[in-house]
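Hi P.,

Sorry for the delay on this. The queue was packed all week, but I finally got your sequence through. Input first:
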Amino acid sequence: MAHPDSESSFLDKFRIPSYLFAPDSEDKNGSTVPQCPVLVFINSKSGGQLGGDLLVTYRSLLSEHQVFDLGEEGPDKVLRRIYLNLEKLRSDGDKLATQIEQALKIIVAGGDGTAGWLLGVVCDLKLSHPPAIATVPLGTGNNLPFSFGWGKKNPGTDRSSVVSFLEQVIQAKEMKIDSWHILMRMRAPKEGSCDPIAPLELPHSLHAFQRVSSTDELNMEGYHTFRGGFWNYFSMGMDAQISYAFHSERKMHPEKFKNQLINQSTYAKLGCTQGWFFASLFHPSSRNIAQLAKVKIMKGHGPWKDLHIPHSIRSIVCLNLPSFSGGLNPWGTPNSAKRSDRDLTPPYVDDGLLEVVGFRDAWHGLVLLAPNGHGTRLAQAHRIRFEFHKGAADHTFMRIDGEPWKQPLPLDDDTVEVEISHLGQVNMLATHGCRAKSVRDPSAQSHHDDGDDDSGGEDTGEEFRKFGAAETFKLPDEVDISRLS
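Then the structure:
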């Protein structure tokens, strides 16, 4: 892509002076404030070989000091070190450090779990000027990048592709999105452990989903308490079970998962082998959501209310962004009649509400591929609580932002609870005209006026048809349905 300035001058808009990363550096002469200073975090293990290739390209274009391999060092350590140095320089009267801190942006390349990892770290730091984050789609589903206009197809890793992405970053707008806190509490079991069981190793987004310390105010004597956060979705049930099987297979046989299309095909096949397409035959009714737990919701700051869950629902999704399962929108857009009758609204990313959607099986999920298709709209809520029935099951499957785990449940405990509540907002970078909409944007509200009668617009585009994997629900072309039934 041609630029009016030379490529080097263009890249200077992103380069951060090296002395800002090294406390004892003397190289301060001639440093100027870049227009769009960025820190780049890349999961070199994502996207087959793409993550490693992208790391090499970014380091060749920008300073090596500002491009980090998440396989070598976690973002929490990196950001703490950088911000401590910026604070030291600010206290010494360094105006450049102050200006860069206020203008700083982050680029993260990886799957949704990697992006969630960065978002969690930025939230935990409680910065006075938290950086907005742009996401490069290197995963399988890529719901976060797709929601904010960065696409969902794995990107090019060559020099021109990266320069083109940086041009989009410098033109991007900032959007706030809701953050959500999840808390799980249960009595300590008499035997065994009820710690979350991840596929061979703890996924990135679950690093924060762990048992609280004995000194934490949320800790209760005689109970195990776990806490975490998410930005895209929390799901429970059969879709999380398939995701768990996929991640387990990928960790055991990484050589089989070298590109996005192969990953999506494998995901779909697992949906068949796990019984997602024939759930009434292979999925015990005791694991259906209504038989597993009582669900309560709170809208605004009102009282808790019981939420009716149809007995056939096998998967429940609490959605913050309008993208799930590789770019689908399970909530859709309620028309004016449904908004009035059921007090429903379009899915805004900053309205403090989660959209709660249910699915019976994969056939039910396939309606999302049709224009205006959506799952079973259950509710919109500011807080959600799952109260598990005593002895209903010895485990269930859960998933946060694409990262699944198997959750053991103590059979003799009638107090197992999972509660989700609103926890502030974070800044994202978004392209103009992206799918995510703000409740504060008048144009977004006019965009939603037609509700369910809308023809689907961007959802029927070529990229959506080709790369909107819908891997949780898609039946592979080579699978013979007659043999499965």
